[in-house]
Amino acid sequence: MIPGITWLASYPKSGNTWLRVFLDNWFGNRAEAVDINSLRGGECSPNSRERFESATLLEPDDLLPEEIEPLRLPVMRLLASETPGSPLVKVHNAYTPAFGSSTARAAIYIVRDPRDVVPSLAAHFGIGIHEAVEFVNGRSVLGQTGQRWHRQLPQMLEDWSGHAHSWLDRCDVPLHVVRYEDLPGAFVGVLRFLGEDAEDTARLTTAIAHSRLEELQRQESEKGFKERLNATPFFRKGKAGAWREVLTPNQAARIERAHGETMARFGYEAACAARA
Asked: Cα–Cα distance between 271 and 261 in angstroms, integer?
C-alpha cells in the first residue's frame, strides 16, 4: 500500500463511493460486507470545517469560497502531518497544490460520462435536469447550500471538463485514472496501483460481491445512508448510458458541445451535438 494520503478524487456522482466501498471491503477482508455508513477516510477529510477552524482560528462562514482556497495548503500540510498510516480519502474538489506532493503521496481519479452524471446529480440534489446541466457546464461550488453541507467547507469544482483537467494535467503526485464505465473490472488496476496483490482472486471476488449495487441498495434500504440528501435513494441505477432515457437530445447536445473534447479524451462518443 502506498504510504501517506491517497486521494480518491472525482467530480460529484462519478463512482467515488462505489470505489470507497470496494476498497474498504478489500482491506477489511471479512466474510460480511462493510457498513456503508462506516467508510474509512472521513476523519481525514480536507473539507472538515472543524479542522479548518482549529488550524486557522477563523470561522468559515465569515469567508468567501475564494478566500478559503489560499488557506487550504497550510491547513492540508497540518492535516497530513497529523495523519498516520495510508488513508484513502475522498475529495470532490478540483485539484490545487493543497492536494499535491506536500500533502499526499498519490491520487486515483474516477471519471464518468457527464451525460450520466447529470441525472444522478439531479436526483441527489433534488434539482431539475436543466439545473443539473447548468451545474456541470458551469464553474460550480459544492457545499454552499443544503442541509448537511454545514459540516463541510465550500468545494470549488470548475466545470466538468475543468475538474478533469485539473487532476489529469496539474496533479504532481502519481495518478491512476479509472472510468466508471469500466468498473468493477478496473478495480484490479486500482489495487495494483496501490501495491496490492490483485492476484488473490478469492479475496477480490468477495470484495466485488460485497460492493454490488444490490448490496448497497439493501443496506441503504435497511438503515439509510448518511450521504443521502433527500428522500431519493443514493444508490439508484448505476447504469452506464442511462442518460439516453432521461436527457432530451438538446440537453445532451449542450453537454457534448461544452465538453466534447474532454469526453473524447476518455472515449465518450458524442451522439447529439452534431444533430442539434
From this structure: 13
Contact in structure between 158 and 139 (CB atoms under 8 Å): yes
- Whether the pLDDT of residue 128 is over 60: the answer is yes
Answer yes or no: are the C-beta atoms of 33 and 25 closer than 8 Å.
yes
Cβ(204)–Cβ(22) below 8 Å = no
Contact by Cβ (8 Å): 136, 252: no
The answer to whether the CB of 247 falls within 8 A of the CB of 118 is: yes
Local structure of 159: helix, strand or coil: coil
Burial class (CB in 10 A: 0-12, 13-18, 19+), 119: buried
Residue-wise pLDDT tens digits, 136-192: 999 888 876 543 445 688 899 999 999 999 999 999 999 999 999 999 999 999 999
- Please answer whether residues 40 and 88 qualify as being in contact, where contact means their C-beta atoms are separated by less than 8 angstroms: yes
To the nearest 10 degrees (0 to 180), the angle between helices 249-265 and 114-125 is 120
Show the domains of the chain with their CATH numbers.
6-113+140-228 (3.40.50.300)
Q: Which of 157, 139, 136 is nearest to 252 (CA)?
A: 136
Neighbouring C-beta atoms of residue 222, cutoff 10 Å? 7
Dihedral angle of Cα 30, 31, 35, 40, to the nearest 10 degrees: 10
Q: Write down the residue that cell numbers 491517497 correspond to.
A: 6
pLDDT, tens only, 19-75: 999 999 999 999 999 888 888 876 678 888 888 988 899 988 888 888 898 999 988
- DSSP letter at 152 equals B
Q: Which residue has the cell 474516477?
A: 110
Residue listed under C-alpha cell 482556497: 69
- Which amino acid does the sequence have at 87? P
